[in-house]
Design goal:
Layout lengths: L8 H12 L6 H7 L4 H14 L1 H5 L2 H8 L3 H10 L10 H10 L1
């Protein structure tokens, strides 16, 4: 029996990266271990962030619960991926996020 993932390949790569990330690993080292470029990984993370904006905007704790992230991975997300003020996201991205709910 095969299982069908509800996540795209990019999303799976990002979730693996986030679950694996810790303070001793740079984005370059992480991307090398995942056999993808740092820019592709960064773009995949941004894409995942945009898709799940409403969940993320409710707080880092829900991200941990949803993706089972370790504390270092949560810290990485909050430092590098979350905008300082979510309201600065373009209104079109907010509309897309709302439609995907």
């Amino acid at each position: 029996m095969t299982t069908v993932s509800r996540y795209s390949a990019d999303e799976e790569r990002v979730m693996l990266a986030l679950a694996w990330a810790d303070h001793s690993m740079t984005l370059s080292e992480l991307s090398a271990s995942l056999e993808t470029s740092a820019e592709d990984l960064r773009e995949a993370m941004r894409s995942l962030y945009r898709r799940h904006f409403l969940l993320i905007s409710r707080g880092i704790r829900q991200i941990e619960d949803t993706y089972l992230l370790s504390r270092p991975a949560r810290d990485y997300v909050s430092r590098h991926l979350l905008p300082k003020t979510p309201s600065k996201l373009p209104i079109e991205e907010l509309r897309i996020a709302n439609r995907r709910r």
